[in-house]
Amino acid sequence: MLIERRKELRKQKRHGFRKAGIMIRKAVEKLIGNQPMSKEDFLEILSGYGDRAWTELLREEAVKVRKRHYGLKVFTRGLIEFTNYCKNNCYYCGIRKGNSHAVRYRLTEEEILGCCEEGHRLGFRTFVLQGGEDPFYTDEKMVGIIRKIKETYPDCALTLSLGEKSYESYRLFREAGADRYLLRHETADEAHYRLLHPLSMSLAHRRQCLYDLKALGYQTGAGMMTGSPGQTMETLAEDLMFLQELQPEMAGVGPFIPHHDTCFAGEPAGSVELTLYLLSVIRLLLPRVLLPATTALGTLDPLGREKGLAAGANVVMPNLSPVRDRKKYELYDNKICTGEESAQCLECLERRIEAAGYEMVSERGDF
Question: How far is the C-alpha of 235 from the C-alpha of 43, rounded, in Å?
Answer without folding.
Answer: 10
